């Protein structure tokens, strides 16, 4: 494709791709020069042009010489739109999920439900790009818009027709997930996270609402978990845009969760949909997984799935990696679960999910990540104090912070906890003391494969370590 076909004017040079980092510019690329939290991309325009950029998308005030200047007051959005025209076509049925917790689980369950209905489906998010045959990790939930659109186009070339992606608040605020048609968008919940970046809960919610007010197609569907304190604000935003609205949950209308009965390895849900009652056997435990499963089902229904078949297929879903994953049994036969809870609300949800499974103590091992919202640390401590019986505070990706200082922030909310910095030692201690009637929860890292200390990633997998300690 020639530059002129994308930005108008003379045909110009051949465009070879898009990049937002000047170090990744190859000859013929279009460079997106954005002002960020650590750097100003506009400072790298001369370097990008020297490296062969044929056009630069930047604010009108930016100085561009030696390449075309695509000037736009919102350059990230303009860049996303151009990149989407370049990388198209994409899978024909695309759905997005936002919310503080449950995005990864919901996109992954939607992918499985589409597949069970016979479609070639994929999910994109924290676990990477997942298809029936493959899982490729990308590092971030949404790396950058060029990579995102390239991945989507790649899926289409592989014959994928249905794709669900995670819309993180960072991704939405930075226009990292834009430009392609999105038929349905879902909201799971909102609670404290990422205030280091968004600063206030209002700004955090506003970032998420963009999915409904701008990103999803104007004739698309909003699937909204109805039992959250801010659900009505999301419903209002969706209605204001003229979207079809499907609400899900105990107070939902499209899929109404009438009751939930816990079993050892799963649960039975009574769901009302289309005026009929459906009994759903879900092979996942916990209220939070029931919520994610129903939101996923609603997305599948919103994109053409049959109601009874979709709800019936929930009986055949596989667990999501690192979400209440049953990792091991201790020598006393206490189950050890690994979960990705890394917010106060997520931790509460994971502990509540396991409470019915512990006839005696719930033993919790957790920490909090460095270079992330500091205010959530004592709140997570307080949740641990309130909902677990025994707490070991340990390290979880200290990044560039002092690990002991992070633990102290967490311990402020749970002063009775035991402090064991080394994550392996902490897991070993929990497993060693668990009795037959206890349950162990290792929270915070889920599927993660490394402990980030400084700028190094030390190999670490909670599930593997739990198995080694239990053996
Ligand atoms: C706070 C945040 O989201 N930062 C992300 C964001 O950075 P930014 O726009 O602020 O960029 P910056 O580093 O200030 O640089 C500004 C611009 O100059 C460019 N640049 C910079 C340096 C240089 O030498 N050359 C150059 O061209 C950069 O590519 C960028 O476009 O865009 C960068 C490029 O895509 C990301 O790498 C970076 O992710 C950082 C590493 C990060 O840790 N992000 C996390 C918090 C994140 O985004 N997480 C969410 C998930 C959260 C969740 O689900 O819980 C995610 O979607 O993954
Ligand atoms: N619907 C929910 N309600 C409350 N907590 C939840 C819900 N879904 C997931 N959680 C908690 O959040 C954790 C992370 O779940 P998941 O990975 O699906 O969320 P996410 O939104 O993708 O997270 P991230 O923002 O890190 O990408 C789970 O392990 C669980 O502890
Ligand atoms: N993707 C999220 C969750 C990370 C979970 C936890 N392990 C941490 O490092 O804080 C983030 O980057 O904030
Ligand atoms: Mg995720």
TrEMBL record:
Superkingdom of the organism of origin: Bacteria
GO cellular component assignments: cytoplasm
GO biological processes: cell division; cell wall organization; peptidoglycan biosynthetic process; regulation of cell shape
Single GO MF annotation: UDP-N-acetylmuramoylalanyl-D-glutamate-2,6-diaminopimelate ligase activity
Required cofactor(s): Mg(2+)
Keywords: ATP-binding, Cell cycle, Cell division, Cell shape, Cell wall biogenesis/degradation, Cytoplasm, Ligase, Magnesium, Nucleotide-binding, Peptidoglycan synthesis
Free-text description of this protein's post-translational modifications in UniProt: Carboxylation is probably crucial for Mg(2+) binding and, consequently, for the gamma-phosphate positioning of ATP.
Identification of the protein by name: UDP-N-acetylmuramoyl-L-alanyl-D-glutamate--2,6-diaminopimelate ligase
Species of provenance: Tardibacter chloracetimidivorans
Taxonomic lineage of the native organism: Bacteria, Pseudomonadati, Pseudomonadota, Alphaproteobacteria, Sphingomonadales
């Amino acid at each position: 494709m020639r530059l002129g076909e994308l930005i108008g004017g003379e045909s110009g040079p051949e465009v070879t791709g898009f990049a937002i980092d000047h170090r990744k510019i190859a000859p013929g690329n279009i460079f997106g020069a954005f002002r960020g939290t650590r750097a100003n991309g506009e400072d790298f325009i001369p370097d990008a042009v020297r490296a062969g950029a044929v056009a630069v998308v930047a604010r009108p005030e930016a100085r561009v010489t030696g390449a075309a200047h695509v000037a736009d007051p919102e350059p990230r959005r303009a860049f996303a739109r151009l990149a989407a025209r370049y990388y198209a076509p994409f899978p024909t049925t695309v759905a997005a999920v936002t919310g503080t917790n449950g995005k990864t689980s919901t996109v992954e369950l939607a992918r499985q439900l589409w597949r069970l209905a016979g479609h070639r489906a994929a999910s994109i998010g924290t676990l990477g790009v997942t298809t029936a045959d493959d899982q490729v990790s990308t590092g971030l939930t949404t790396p950058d818009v060029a990579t995102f659109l390239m991945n989507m186009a790649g899926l289409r070339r592989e014959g994928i027709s249905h794709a669900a992606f995670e819309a993180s608040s960072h991704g939405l605020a930075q226009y990292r997930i834009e430009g392609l048609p999105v038929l349905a968008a879902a909201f799971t919940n909102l609670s404290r996270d990422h205030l280091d970046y968004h600063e206030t809960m209002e700004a955090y919610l506003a970032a998420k609402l963009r999915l409904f007010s701008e990103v999803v197609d104007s004739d698309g569907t909003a699937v909204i978990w109805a039992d959250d304190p801010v659900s009505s604000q999301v419903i209002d935003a969706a209605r204001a845009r003229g979207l079809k609205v499907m609400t899900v949950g105990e107070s939902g209308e499209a899929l109404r969760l009438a009751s939930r009965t816990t079993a050892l390895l799963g649960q039975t849900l009574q769901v009302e949909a289309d005026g009929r009652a459906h009994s759903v056997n879900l092979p996942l435990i916990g209220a939070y997984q029931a919520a994610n499963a129903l939101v996923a089902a609603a997305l599948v229904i919103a994109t053409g799935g049959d109601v009874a078949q979709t709800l019936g297929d929930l009986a055949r879903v596989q667990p999501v990696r690192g979400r209440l994953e049953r990792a091991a049994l201790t020598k006393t036969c206490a189950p050890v679960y690994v979960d990705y809870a890394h917010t106060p609300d997520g931790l509460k949800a994971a502990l509540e999910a396991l409470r019915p499974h512990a006839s005696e103590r719930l033993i919790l091992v957790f920490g909090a990540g460095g270079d992330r919202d500091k205010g959530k640390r004592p709140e997570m401590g307080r949740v641990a104090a309130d909902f677990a019986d025994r707490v070991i505070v340990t390290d979880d990706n200290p990044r560039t912070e002092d690990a002991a200082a992070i633990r102290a922030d967490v311990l402020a909310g749970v002063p009775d906890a035991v402090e064991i910095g080394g994550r392996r030692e902490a897991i070993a201690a929990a497993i060693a003391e668990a009795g037959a009637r206890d349950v162990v929860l290792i929270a915070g890292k889920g599927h993660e494969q490394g402990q980030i200390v400084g700028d190094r990633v030390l190999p670490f997998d909670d599930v593997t370590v739990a198995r080694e300690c239990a053996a």
